[in-house]
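It is worth pausing here to work through a concrete case rather than discussing structure prediction in the abstract. The textbook approach is simple: state the sequence, then state the predicted structure, then interpret. We follow exactly that order.
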Amino acid sequence: MGKNTSTSLGNHFEKFIKALEIGEQSGFVENFDPKQNLKELHREYL
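Step two, the predicted structure:
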């Protein structure tokens, strides 16, 4: 990927792109229950 982004974004953009690449390479979670996950997120953060 080329580095032709604005310099005002700086290192933040590079870290964001790296995180996206790592996420894409990590694969899928098996036995993921989205409703249970949402309940846990609500319990923890709300």
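Step three, interpretation. The first helix runs from residue 10 to 25. The radius of gyration is 16 Å.
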